[in-house]
Amino acid sequence: MKNKALKVILLTASVALSPGAIAQESDQPLLVEIRRMSMDVALAIAKTAIDHCREQGVQVAVTVVDRGGHPQVVLRDVLAMDLALDVSFRKAYTAMTFTSATSALEDRFTGPFSVGKLDKVLLSAGGMPVQASGETIGGVGVSGAPSGQIDESCAQAGVAAVEMDLEMAPF
User: Fold this and answer.
1) What distance in Å separates the CA atoms of residue 64 and residue 127, rounded to the nearest whole number?
2) Distance separating alpha carbons of residues 12 and 149, to the nearest angstrom
3) Which terminal CB of the chain, N or C, has fewer other CB atoms within 10 Å?
């Protein structure tokens, strides 16, 4: 009797947990399409940011991260400090994570145990989210200029270089 009851329970569970049953109980799709930046777009952002900073007489490091916060393009100008590489990554990661310019976050998390104390998060001007049709698809961080405002203007120039193309891109 126990074996028969166990078989009935297992059969019921397997039917209930089958993909068809999951799709019927939920309006959520089983698979989702995710928009991602191409390498060429990420490279255009980084190169434009470098060029914008060079026009101001500044050599910087630029990191462009994808929507998961993973570095997609990293550029360091000849005279930019090595430290700028890590800082540019952290700014890009923070901008992507919070979907905000990092300058807007500088005074947001001030408590001793706030989110601003996390390893990858850096609440300092110089990071911008990269968006396509209102969806965050990455972030760019710039480091090495004498001020965060210059870093951020270079990051913004990088985003502006591809912004229209991203808005018009089909999906």
Assistant:
1) 10
2) 61
3) N
Any residues with CB less than 8 A from the CB of 35 and at least 6 apart, and which? 67, 132, 135, 137, 171
Quick check: 53 and 142 in contact, CB under 8 A? yes
Measured distance CA(73)–CA(37) in Å, rounded: 11
Distance CA 112, CA 137 (A): 30
- pTM higher than the cut 0.85: no
Q: Residue 110 in contact with residue 97, Cβ under 8 Å?
A: no
The pLDDT tens digits of the residues spanning 101-125 come to 999 887 776 666 666 567 788 888 9
- Residue 104's Cβ-count burial label (10 Å; 0-12, 13-18, 19+) is middle
